[in-house]
Design goal:
The chain is of the alpha/beta class and 161 residues long. It has one domain. It is built from 6 helices and 8 strands. It has a 4-stranded parallel beta sheet with strand order 2-1-5-8, sandwiched between helices. Helix 4 packs parallel to helix 5. It starts with a strand and ends with a helix. The mean pLDDT is 98. Bound molecules: iron/sulfur cluster (SF4). Iron/sulfur cluster (SF4) binds next to helix 2.
Length: 161
Amino acid sequence: MSRLLVSACLMGQMVRYDGRAKILIHKSLARWSADGRVVPFCPELAGGLSVPRQSAEIEPGYDGNDVLAGRAKVVDSEGADVTEAFVFGARLAIDLARDRDCTHALLTEASPSCGSSQLYSGHHDGTRRDGFGVTTAALRSAGIDVFAPSQIESLAAHCAW
Ligand code: SF4
C-alpha cells in the first residue's frame, strides 16, 4: 500500500523547536490518516535533537542539496553547528520512506529540514528566501515527490488513493 510521509508537526505532534505543533487540518489528510496511509516523522528529532531546541537555518545562499554534499552547514541561533543531526535525520527519512512504501511526502514549509520551496535566510533575521531543506533534498534524490501544505490539493490529485 502506498503511503505518505508527513511532517510530524503537521499531524499535531509537539516537536517543533519551540515545543509546539503546526497542525494541518484538511479533509484529504484526515482520510489518508484514517486509511493508515500517513507515516508521521520528524527528521530533527530522529537526528538526535531535542524539544525544545534552538531554531536553526541553512547558511545564506545554500540549500538542502548543499548541506548533503558538505558544501554548507546548518547553524542554530546560538551559532552551534547542527549539520550532522540534520543530515542523519534526512538519511533516516529515506530509510523510513522506503520501508513504509511512501511515494510522496507532505512537509512543513520553510523548515531547514522540511521546507520544499522556501527557507529562512540563514541570518536568523526572520526573513525568507527561495530554497528547500535537507530532508526534502534527500527525499527528492530518492525519487519521492515532496509537497508543501499549500499544495495539498495538488498532492491529492497526484495520489489516486
Ligand atoms: Fe516539523 Fe520537520 Fe521541523 Fe520536525 S523538522 S518540527 S517535522 S518541520
